[in-house]
Amino acid sequence: MRLQLLPVLTTGLSLSFAGPLTTRQPSPRYEVAELLRFPGNTHLENHKILPNGHLLIGALNSTTVYTVDPLATPPTPSPIVTIPGGTSLFGITPVNNDLYAIVSGNASSQPHHYNAGSFQVHIVSPCSSSPPALIKTIPVPRVD
What pTM, to 2 d.p., does this model score? Predict the structure, then answer.
């Protein structure tokens, strides 16, 4: 009976020590560097990386949506669409393939307060249409 348990015990010990004794690959090291500076007093809110590697960027104090090619020398923000009827852009979320939902609204005079009933969701196509297009605007109902 003792001879039959020994291989199982040995195998069990080998497996238990295999994890800590193996050599792990080092984690990749990333360098943080400034990509660009937006002009003036721009408060960037959100960004997404597009399939082509460019950045899609929105700001809190503007309703202009920008793209930036991070490999360009120098990288420069290019406005692709200005969304009407608001003062600020909030979230950017991919919807489907080249469609992105971007939320806009009107900021109040108090910091971090926004006017209820002013929010809209905009569907934007930044890459596949030329020029980039604002596809649809959906008002968000006011909730009191």
Answer: 0.71
